[in-house]
Design a protein that fits this description.
The protein has strands at residues 20-28, 35-42, 48-57, 63-69, 76-83, 89-98. The protein has 124 residues and is mostly beta strands.
Length: 124
């Protein structure tokens, strides 16, 4: 009722404001860091703001190479540690085997001297 005893009308306009939601996808090579993480904040108009981060697992991605060599010193397994595009460990593993067929053999010929080189001739 109004101050003068008359009826009064108070009009209230309510507006329902939706919460803000942000979805983030990420990858990680650490199994302990994967999953869904939710953080609740307050947005600019005072409503809930939800940030949902989904982290999926990216496995290590080794690359396997094979090679051959005629040098026995190069035979074996060699591992190179790198970082991949996700910032995770990456390995290049090269297995080198010995290839005997790659060795070239050059025959050597000796000039034989009659008498074993002990004679007095210029031909010996």
């Amino acid at each position: 009722m109004a101050a003068n005893g008359c009826d009064s009308v108070v009009q209230v306009n309510l507006e329902f404001l939706l919460p803000s939601e942000t979805y983030i996808s990420s990858t990680n090579c650490n199994p302990a860091s994967v999953g869904v993480d939710t953080v609740i904040l307050t947005n600019a108009v005072g409503c809930d703001s939800v940030v949902i981060t989904t982290t999926t697992f990216v496995p290590l991605n080794p690359t396997f190479l094979t090679a051959t060599s005629c040098n026995p010193n190069f035979v074996g397994i060699d591992t190179v540690h790198l970082i991949n595009q996700f910032g995770c460990d990456s390995f290049v593993i090269t297995t080198t085997t010995f290839d005997a067929s790659a060795i070239s053999v050059t025959p050597l010929f000796a000039k034989l001297r009659p008498c074993g080189g002990r004679c007095g001739h210029a031909r010996c």
